[in-house]
Design goal:
Blueprint lengths: L1 H12 L2 H4 L3 E9 L9 E4 L6 E2 L5 E7 L2 E8 L6 E7 L5 E9 L3 H5 L31 H10 L15 E4 L2 E2 L17 H4 L4 E3 L15 E4 L9 E9 L5 E8 L7 E13 L7 E16 L2 E9 L2 E4 L6 H7 L7 E4 L2 E4 L2 E5 L2 E10 L3 E21 L21 H6 L5 H10 L13 E24 L2 E22 L6 E2 L1 E2 L5 E2 L8 E2 L4 E22 L3 E18 L14 E2 L3 E15 L4 E12 L3 H4 L16 E13 L3 E26 L5 E29 L2 E14 L4 E6 L3 E3 L1 H4 L16 E10 L4 E11 L16 E2 L4 E2 L5 H8 L7 E14 L2 E10 L8 E5 L7 H8 L9 E4 L4 E9 L1
Parallel strand pairs: 1-7, 8-11
Antiparallel strand pairs: 1-4, 2-3, 2-5, 5-6, 8-9, 10-11, 12-13, 12-48, 13-14, 14-15, 15-16, 15-17, 16-21, 17-20, 18-19, 20-22, 21-22, 22-23, 23-24, 24-29, 25-28, 26-27, 29-30, 30-31, 30-32, 32-33, 33-34, 34-35, 35-36, 36-37, 36-38, 37-40, 38-39, 40-41, 41-44, 42-43, 44-45, 45-48, 46-47
Pfam families: CarboxypepD_reg
Subcellular location: Cell outer membrane
Keywords: Cell outer membrane, Membrane, Receptor, Signal
Length: about 900
């Protein structure tokens, strides 16, 4: 009797949660075709105990008390789902059954093409070229619309170009050391491999694998076993930067002996898709081999590359477009009945990686990667020696100059290859019978990089709701830069002499050398850069709050090693040999704070403050000739903040964000020909290297993205971006040229007055509204209307300095100069607003174990050819007399160079997977 009483008494004093049955809740997450969805994220409202579905899509929550619950199930490239359920007392197990996530079909079919052909042009004075950012289709509706709808028209979210974005493969950064930008050519065509990033964070959100920058982080894990076991075949037809694409991918899955393989290959080819004289032939390959030694340890070897051969298209003045049309390209001409382009980019920079995956204990992982990348990036162009400029659009050949009329210009509007060969043939011999050098040739500017990387990532769970990440990176770059002869066009050899500076020797230690095909000429130097960086981040999750923070520090060293001693006396001691080491120390902090109002509503704050060391192009103002460091070059200081409201409802998904970013102390380099006047009034033309330093910019605005499920199959989606991207300071200007060396503020009479000018290269305001229908029978159709506003022309800084209106003979303003006239001459051009209409459709089929899909997307259905995707002001007119005279002409000789949108473009795709 006493034992029974004691047991009853014990039950009385124990918590009620002990003797009420606690419940295990479980379910399976699958796609519409019944395939399990691995690694789906399952978020339990007001709880830090979130879980992830395993390889068969299974997840469970244990020890849940009676009550009402809400979970959100999400997976990239699938539509998220919210599920509510109740647990009653004494319910031990609750089966939620199979939770089906519908594929975001338009994101799978809507292939985003990174068309960077325009960025190959280096004609004129602009550090800006049209670029696109990290074009990915994440769960965030604003980012998805920015990529697939607005991104087709060079829209950049928050005004950030890819200088401020990070792409990592197994922890190794793909950003180039020379300009900090991403070169998508290194993995172009590998869509099956890069379709789903392992981690994709937007803007300044902290990442687990890197500190990141302003434009977000995309992290790719190339572990062979991480790819779904299948074979995928696809073919695409398009009229964008090529015509055809064929792609095949095979993943073996993990064998019983622990081996797995993933291989992929593709080819993109075709010519004259829209722009005349543009052609491309590019291959791509990928292979990953993994050996899994145990559940805790595996080793993965990866190799990928994308040998690319692509012709470029020219920017042109409005006068040229009015005569020749929007498809005109001045870079090509007929040779033996075929179109030959003078501007060819040939790049092949394969990378090889060895990655070790190690699980330590129950909660920790260590991932180490070593990589080596080697290859060439060569860009060709015409060169001439004591001869007329062969460019068909040279200003003296344009009708506005008066020597030719429009019909005569049309008749000689392409490069005359026959004339170049004939001219060289007539100059093969001197009067005494000795050989003469070529008058015209094709040269290539080559970067030959060798890059070694070591990347280490460690993560551990300190507690169930507290995670710590540590990332260490080391990189060593040796970049060999030179110009070489590609084609002598029938000539005997080329002179290694500077025709623009009294035939001075480019290499004084080897005078009068005769340069043949494949030989180096004009410049040759090596840049060496090493960098060490450490990043520590942590995330802690509470029932109502989530807090993440990230810090980093980085140290880098850069050095130039010149191979040629300049024949210009003032440069002879600073041109050949090793320069002093330029070092830089960086540091920064990021933070993210999320307040969970409930399972559907969130408030998110992100903040970042960090420095950014100058790139190699920013450190050395003219590395082709000398080792001079750019005057006033500094580390950039970046301060960025954003605040968002996020709603993840079953019917409505919404994000509203406001952001404020300041970039200080940045440096911008431009290279172009300028017409200037020296102190004695003597006019001359010269190639100028222009640097503006102490550049401050402000990016402010708000974003909205929404997705409304009008019916279970019909959605309305939209995005709005309203920004203002402005230069907030007048800047220091320095120039370097062969005639005069450095010229700074003293020569240019002060700072460039650019305060209030707008950042170019992207619409500052953009709006998109779309409708899409996803049929239960696996077909879809969608359309979007897009409106782009506030696109500006990039400017040249020289004619914004007081030098423009200051008479060098008197040091006073020219006669007739007024503030109104200066404003007229220096005003920044704003382009017209534009409307674009897009559409896409597709269907997928299930044929037993085979899955087949067809899709088509069309951009700019209305064939709007008035949209200017980018442009820059020519820097040739840096003095008042010439600038005023040119501005008063009906058609200026030196109008801005522009790129126009290509009009209606399409992309069709068919795939088979099994």
């Amino acid at each position: 009797m006493m034992k029974k009483l004691s047991f009853i008494t014990l039950l009385t004093f124990l918590p009620a949660s002990w003797y009420f049955a606690q419940t295990t809740v479980f379910a399976y997450v699958k796609s519409a075709d019944g395939s399990p969805i691995e690694s789906a994220e399952v978020d339990l409202q007001n709880s830090p105990d979130d879980v992830t579905a395993d390889k068969i899509g299974y997840f469970q929550f244990v020890d849940l008390k009676p009550g009402h619950y809400l979970i959100t199930i999400a997976k990239q490239n699938f539509e998220s789902k919210i599920l509510e359920f109740d647990i009653v007392a004494h319910e031990k197990r609750k089966d939620l059954g199979v939770i089906v996530l519908n594929s975001n079909l338009t994101s799978e079919a809507g292939v985003v093409l990174v068309d960077d052909s325009a960025s190959d042009a280096d004609d004129g004075g602009s550090a800006m070229q049209p670029t696109v950012g990290l074009l990915s289709s994440g769960r965030d509706i604003f980012q998805s619309i920015s990529a697939f709808e607005l991104g087709a028209y060079w829209f950049r979210p928050r005004g950030v170009d890819n200088r401020y974005e990070d792409v990592l493969f197994n922890g190794v950064s793909m950003s180039k050391n020379d300009d900090g930008r991403l070169d998508f050519s290194n993995w172009g065509g590998l869509n099956d491999i890069t379709r789903y990033p392992y981690e994709n964070v937007d803007n300044i959100t902290p990442s687990e694998y890197a500190f990141g920058n302003l434009g977000g982080v995309a992290y790719y894990n190339t572990q062979a076993s991480s790819y779904r076991k299948q074979t995928s075949l696809s073919y695409s037809f398009t009229n964008r930067s090529y015509l055809h694409r064929a792609m095949a991918t095979y993943s073996s899955g993990l064998s019983r002996k622990g081996w797995s393989f993933t291989v992929s290959g593709s080819r993109r080819w075709g010519n004259n898709a829209v722009i005349e004289g543009v052609y491309q032939d590019s291959y791509a390959y990928f292979a990953a081999i993994e050996k899994k030694f145990s559940d805790r340890h595996s080793l993965n070897l990866t190799g990928f590359g994308s040998p690319t051969y692509r012709a470029s298209n020219s920017p042109n003045t409005q006068e040229v477009y009015d005569i020749m049309g929007k498809n005109y390209n001045s870079y090509w001409g007929w040779q033996d009945g075929e179109k030959r382009n003078s501007r060819i980019r040939k790049v092949f920079e394969p990378i090889f990686m060895l990655t070790d995956y190690l699980k330590i204990g129950k909660n920790s992982n260590l991932i180490n990667t070593i990589s080596y990348q080697i290859g060439n990036d060569a860009r060709s162009r015409l060169d001439w020696f004591h001869a007329a400029d062969p460019n068909p659009t040279y200003y003296r050949k344009l009708p506005s100059y008066g020597l030719l009329n429009s019909d005569e210009f049309r008749a000689q509007s392409q490069i005359n290859w026959d004339f170049l060969y004939k001219t060289n043939h007539l100059n093969l011999k001197n009067m005494d019978g000795t050989d003469r050098g070529a008058v015209y040739s094709v040269v290539e500017d080559v970067n030959r990089d060798k890059t070694f990387n070591f990347a280490s990532h460690f993560d551990t769970r300190l507690q169930d709701n507290w995670k710590l990440n540590i990332n260490f990176n080391y990189q060593n770059l040796r970049s060999d830069n030179f110009r070489r002869i590609k084609d002598l066009l029938g000539g005997n050899f080329a002179y290694n002499l500077n025709a623009f500076n009294n035939d001075s020797q480019f290499d004084a230690d080897n005078p009068n050398v005769q340069v043949k095909d494949g030989d180096r000429t004009q410049y040759s130097y090596e840049l060496v850069r090493s960098q060490y960086s450490l990043n520590i981040s942590s995330e802690i999750d509470f029932s109502k709050w989530n807090i993440a923070a990230s810090i980093f520090t980085s140290y880098s060293e850069a050095q130039r090693d010149g191979h040629y001693r300049s024949g210009i006396t003032r440069f002879k001691n600073n041109s050949k040999g090793k320069s002093a080491v330029y070092d830089a120390l960086d540091a920064g902090i990021k933070a993210k704070v999320t307040y969970k109002i409930n399972g559907k509503n969130f408030i998110v704050y992100n903040g970042a403050f960090f420095s950014l060391a100058p790139t190699l192009n920013e450190i050395y103002i003219n590395p082709r000739v000398v080792d001079y460091v750019t005057p006033g070059v500094k580390n950039q200081i970046i301060n960025s903040n954003d605040l968002s409201y996020i709603l993840r409802g079953q019917v409505l998904k919404l994000r509203l964000s406001g952001y404020y970013t300041v970039i200080s102390n940045s440096t911008e380099i431009s290279r172009y020909y300028a017409d200037a006047t020296n102190e004695l009034g003597t006019s001359f033309n010269t190639l100028v290297n222009e640097a503006i330093t102490d550049v401050n910019k402000r990016f402010i605005g708000f974003e909205m993205g929404f997705d409304v499920k009008v019916t279970p199959t019909f959605n309305a989606v939209g995005a709005a971006s309203v920004g203002e991207y402005t230069y907030t300071s007048n800047v220091n200007v320095s120039t370097f040229d062969d005639f005069n060396g450095f010229r700074g503020d003293e020569f240019w009479k002060g700072k460039a007055n650019i305060k209030g000018y707008k950042v170019a290269g992207t619409p500052q305001k953009a709006f998109s509204f779309g409708l899409k229908y996803n049929s239960p029978k696996y077909w879809w159709v969608g359309a979007s209307a897009n409106y782009l506003m506030d696109q500006y022309l990039d400017f040249s800084a020289l004619n914004k300095t007081p030098y423009l209106y200051t008479d060098p003979s008197t040091n006073d303003p020219y006669e007739g100069v007024t503030p109104e006239l200066i404003q007229q001459l220096t005003a920044q051009k704003k382009f017209d607003d534009q409307f674009m209409l897009n559409a896409n459709a597709g269907k997928s089929f299930l044929l037993g174990k085979y899955r087949m899909g067809v899709s088509i997307s069309v951009n700019n259905i209305l064939n709007n050819r008035n949209y200017i995707t980018g442009g820059f002001e020519q820097g040739r007119l840096a003095n008042f007399t010439d600038a005023l005279e040119d501005s008063q002409r009906a058609i200026p000789h030196f109008g801005p160079k522009l790129w126009y949108d290509r009009g209606t473009t399409f992309f069709t795709n068919v795939y088979l997977r099994f």
